[in-house]
Structure formats: structure tokens, C-alpha cells
């Protein structure tokens, strides 16, 4: 039935290998149809932050569905009000939030808000967006246009006009020459140059993840984002921070941008960890400096944007419970601590011949595999498959970065649930180490 009727995400039809099918989960582990247990070292799609089976979250959804099953946000309901206030508190506000169903839609919403903001602020010509090569921002046309991964786009281009791409901060393969000391800052400067070349009167926003995740786990120095924020401010260009993966503790801070000083984004988008994947929800939080322009009666202030299920009462109730648990169990502090005391042991793998670089922050690690350290030639797809398959055979699921740049799908991705026990984290480290010591 699966083969006949179910169209899988990132589908590649393959007669022989049926996709793994899970039947149940508990904490960071799930069981497949054969009864084998696996630790989910990528948290589903980086979203299952609190792991499987949290009864309080299920109870919150149940109670909300019984009490008020649906109500649109053209009007209002309590879980959405409370959640928007909670988000503002954690962003060290004031922020006002528009709710959607997913990260892609959260980014779409951000683009529309940014264009409308400039328009009603007297700058209707500011419409372009800048994002970085290797970035992924979603599957809808606008968010896919901000996405700058050739393989993801080639069958669907041309995208939406007005999206420009710049080099990412990536000192290991710098766009600015080998062994350049301040490569990240040059990448930030490049954004300044592009805004100047395009004419700042035409640029609406810069969208970026604090740490490129799916594009290969790129961890810039903390000065990079501070500098980009300064550049945006100078040109009246909105800084849109995509916290879809990095939000809610993944990096050892509540939000990834909080690693850098003096960054207060104009817009923050989130999804995934907002509900720990228990129900779909996306959010676009807008700083009051921007939101103020949407106040008043004029037609320009009218934000003509609606999502039937965005901010569903049950999703908001689940998000509130999820955040309550994150606070109560001090998940963010725990991630920072376990990253430092345990996951950072993964850096030792850099000693191996085929490990080009290990990059990591919080519970977000990437291991870039190369044929040899000198040439930095990416290992083959087959080799990546062998490493991932060997981890799976030992009971650990890890991921990889697709084919971010053609031929460069060579980064292993490790991002376990944030509530993983000490033993779970040890298991992840030991398994990855033993496989890489054997194969690399
Ligand atoms: N932004 C980033 C950084 C993502 O990684 C993703 C999804 O993986 C999205 C946006 C899109 O989120 P969604 O799949 O919920 O639409």
C-alpha cells in the first residue's frame, strides 16, 4: 500500500528498499516494524526536541480540542494570545507574532510583512531579499527562492523575482581565499557590498539562520551576525532570522541569534521546536519597531494575509506546554552543558584522515568528510551511505546534508532530541566515534 499510494518527502522511487516505518517511540528512541530500536539522532526532521511520549503535551492538546476545537485568528483565542506573549518574553521583546502552520509559511509571512512595511514606511521600492548560498528556508516558492541549494531548485526554477544570494560564512571552504583569517567578516562585508551595488533603496531584507543547519552545519564566529545586524541597520534593511531549526534551545541558547552580541532581529521565524513536532505550528515574530507601522486605520496598514489553521488552538496549547517543560526542566541550560562536557568530544575526530572539519554548537553537530585533508575532496555518496548505514546497524540514526552544493553532500549531521538522557548522549558519541574510527 505504501508503494502504491504514499508519496514520500524527498521521494526517489526505489522498488527494492522500502522506507523504514516506525511503530512507536519513547524519549529519544523509536521502534520499527521489525521490532528494532533506534536512537533518533536527528530528532525526526530536527523537530522532536522533547522526544516521544510526553503525556502532558498530549493532555494539553486533548483538553484544548475538547474545549474549543477550532477558532480562526481573524478573531482571537486564549492559547494564541498567551503564546504570542510567551514568545515576546523569550525574545526579550516586544514582539508581535503572526501564526502559520510551518517554517516555510513563517518565512513567506516574513517576506510579505517586510515588503509591506517598507511600502507603508514610504519606501515601496525596497523589495529584494538577500540570503546565503547553502541555505534552506522552505519548500514554497518564496522560501524556495531564498533557498540557495542548486539541486533543490533546478526542477522548479525560475523562482520568485527579487531574491539574491551571497556566500555563507564558511571558513573551511572560504569564498575569499584559502587560510584567510577573517573569512566570516568578509562574508558579512559582502552583504554590505551587494546592498550597495543593488542600491539600498531596493533591498527589503536579509534572511539567515544563525547557524546554517541543513546546508552543512556552518558555525560562524559570533561577530558575523553582529556585523550583519549593523549592516542591515545602516541600510534600513530588515534582519529576518530563521530560527526554525535553531529556536527553542537547539544551540544551547533559547534562540540561536542570542550567541551574538547586540542583535535584536526585526523578524524572527520559528516552527519545529516551537511544538517539539507534536503538532504543526509556524510563527513570525515581528519587532514592535516594524509592527508599529501596521497600526492605524489606513488601507496600507491592512495586512491581507490569512491562514485557516495557522495558530490552531490545539497547536498553540501544545506549544505553551512545550515551552513550559523547556523552562521547568532547564532544557536550554542542559543542552549547553552536555554539549560542552560530552558532545564536544566529537571534535577529537578531527584527528582522522577523512574528517575535514567537525563543527558544532549545542545539540547541532556536523562532521565534514573528505578524501584527504589536503585536497578536501568530498567523500562519495557511497561512502556517506556506508557511514550512515554502519551507525544504523548499531542502532543510531544520523543524517547528512543532502547535496547542498552539487557533489558536496558530505556533512554528517547529528542533532539528537534536547531531552536525551546522559546515557543517550554517550551512546550517540560512542557510536559515531566507533564507526568513524573504523571507516575514516
Ligand atoms: N527554515 C529552515 C532553516 C528549515 O530547516 C526548514 C525545514 O527544514 C524550514 C525553514 C521549513 O520548515 P517547514 O518544513 O516546517 O516548512
Automatic annotation (TrEMBL):
Keywords: Aminotransferase, Pyridoxal phosphate, Transferase. It holds the Pfam family Aminotran_3. SUPFAM superfamilies: PLP-dependent transferases. InterPro entries: Aminotrans_3 (IPR005814), Aminotrans_3_PPA_site (IPR049704), PyrdxlP-dep_Trfase (IPR015424), PyrdxlP-dep_Trfase_major (IPR015421), PyrdxlP-dep_Trfase_small (IPR015422). GO terms for molecular function: pyridoxal phosphate binding; transaminase activity. Gene3D superfamilies: Aspartate Aminotransferase, domain 1, Type I PLP-dependent aspartate aminotransferase-like (Major domain). It comes from the Bacteria. The keyword Oxidoreductase does not apply. Belongs to the class-III pyridoxal-phosphate-dependent aminotransferase family. This is Aminotransferase. The lineage of its organism: Bacteria, Bacillati, Bacillota, Bacilli, Bacillales.
Amino acid at each position: 500500500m505504501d508503494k502504491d499510494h504514499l508519496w514520500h518527502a524527498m521521494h526517489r522511487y526505489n522498488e527494492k528498499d522500502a522506507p523504514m516505518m516506525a511503530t512507536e517511540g519513547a524519549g529519544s528512541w523509536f521502534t520499527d516494524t521489525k521490532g528494532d530500536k533506534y536512537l533518533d539522532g536527528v530528532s525526526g526532521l530536527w523537530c522532536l526536541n522533547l522526544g516521544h511520549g510526553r503525556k502532558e503535551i498530549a493532555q494539553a492538546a486533548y483538553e484544548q480540542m475538547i474545549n474549543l476545537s477550532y477558532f480562526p485568528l481573524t478573531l482571537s483565542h486564549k492559547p494564541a494570545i498567551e503564546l504570542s506573549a510567551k514568545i515576546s518574553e523569550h525574545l526579550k521583546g516586544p514582539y508581535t507574532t503572526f501564526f502559520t502552520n510551518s517554517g516555510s509559511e513563517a518565512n513567506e509571512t516574513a517576506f510579505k510583512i517586510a515588503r509591506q512595511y517598507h511600502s507603508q514606511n514610504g519606501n515601496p521600492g525596497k523589495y529584494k531579499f538577500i540570503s546565503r548560498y547553502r541555505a534552506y528556508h522552505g519548500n514554497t516558492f518564496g522560501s524556495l527562492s531564498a533557498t540557495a541549494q542548486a539541486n533543490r531548485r533546478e526542477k522548479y526554477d525560475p523562482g520568485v523575482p527579487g531574491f539574491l544570494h551571497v556566500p555563507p560564512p564558511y571558513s573551511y571552504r572560504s569564498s575569499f581565499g584559502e587560510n584567510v583569517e577573517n573569512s566570516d567578516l568578509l562574508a558579512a562585508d559582502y552583504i554590505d557590498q551587494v546592498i550597495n551595488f543593488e542600491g539600498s533603496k531596493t533591498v527589503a531584507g536579509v534572511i539567515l539562520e544563525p547557524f546554517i543547519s541543513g546546508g552543512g552545519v556552518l558555525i560562524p564566529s559570533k561577530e558575523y551576525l553582529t556585523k550583519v545586524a549593523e549592516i542591515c541597520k545602516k541600510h534600513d534593511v530588515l534582519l529576518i532570522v530563521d530560527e526554525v531549526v535553531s529556536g527553542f534551545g537547539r544551540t544551547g541558547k533559547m534562540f540561536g541569534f542570542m550567541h551574538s552580541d547586540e542583535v535584536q532581529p526585526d523578524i524572527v521565524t520559528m516552527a519545529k521546536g516551537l511544538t517539539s513536532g507534536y503538532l504543526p505550528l509556524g510563527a513570525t515574530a515581528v519587532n514592535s519597531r516594524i509592527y508599529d507601522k501596521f497600526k492605524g486605520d489606513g488601507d496600507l496598514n491592512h495586512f491581507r494575509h490569512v491562514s485557516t489553521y495557522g495558530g490552531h488552538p490545539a497547536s498553540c496549547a501544545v506549544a505553551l506546554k512545550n515551552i513550559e517543560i523547556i523552562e521547568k526542566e532547564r532544557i536550554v541550560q542542559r543542552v549547553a552543558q552536555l554539549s560542552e562536557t560530552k558532545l564536544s568530544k566529537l571534535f577529537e575526530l578531527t584527528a582522522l584522515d577523512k574528517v575535514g572539519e567537525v563543527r558544532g554548537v549545542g545539540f547541532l553537530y556536523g562532521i565534514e568528510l573528505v578524501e584527504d585533508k589536503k585536497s578536501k575532496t568530498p567523500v562519495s555518496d557511497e561512502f556517506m551511505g556506508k557511514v550512515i548505514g554502519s551507525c544504523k546497524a548499531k542502532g543510531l540514526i544520523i543524517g547528512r546534508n543532502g547535496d547542498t552544493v552539487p557533489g558536496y553532500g558530505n556533512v554528517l549531521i547529528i542533532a539528537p532530541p534536547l531531552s536525551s538522557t546522559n546515557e543517550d548522549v554517550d551512546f550517540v558519541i560512542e557510536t559515531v566515534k566507533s564507526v568513524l574510527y573504523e571507516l575514516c
